Amino acid sequence: MNNPCTHCLSAEHFKIGKTQKRSCHYCKEISVCDKYLRHEEYLLSKRKYRQGEPITSLDELLQQQFVYVFRSIRHIEVVKHLQLATILSAIDRKGIYKAIKKSEE
């Protein structure tokens, strides 16, 4: 792995064999091993939905049945129980995406 951070070169979390994501305290670069990447690909292949385009308004949000909220899929009823300020903040930061069913593609 090409790592520009001098602190990461000797850091323990960049040694080979680790199976999880870890970030460097200094440069916030993420180290990921091959086993973790294969596991992520496996999980993506088993999901029924994929992430679509970002949602830009409350009306558009309420028309959906499932949405991605910061990389995890949620039913719209779960999102409706969040505080309005939280939902509006997530929409502004482009943190809520449409969930597209894979069989519809």
Radius of gyration: 18 Å
Domain count, please report it: 2
Please give the alpha-carbon distance between the first and last residues. Answer: 36 Å
Helix content estimate = 25-40%
Q: Strand pairing plus helix content: what structural class?
A: alpha+beta
Biggest sheet statistics: 4 strands, antiparallel
Number of strands: 6
Give the strand line-up of the largest sheet. 3-6-4-5
Order of helices and strands: HEEHEHEEHHE
Mean pLDDT: 77
**Helix segment tally:** 5
Low-pLDDT segments: 9-14
Shape: globular
Strand content: 15-25%
Brief account:
34% of the residues lie in helices and 23% in strands. By secondary structure, it is α+β, with helices and mostly antiparallel strands.
Task: Describe this protein with a few key phrases.
2 domains; 5 helices; 105 residues
Describe the structure.
The structure is a single chain. The chain is built from five helices and six strands, in the order H-E-E-H-E-H-E-E-H-H-E. Strand 4 and strand 5 form a beta hairpin. It is α+β, with helices and mostly antiparallel strands and 105 residues long. It folds into two domains: 39 residues, no CATH class; 56 residues, no CATH class. It is globular, with a radius of gyration of 18 Å. The longest helix has 13 residues. The strands form two sheets. The chain has a four-stranded antiparallel sheet. The chain has a two-stranded antiparallel sheet with strand order 1-2.
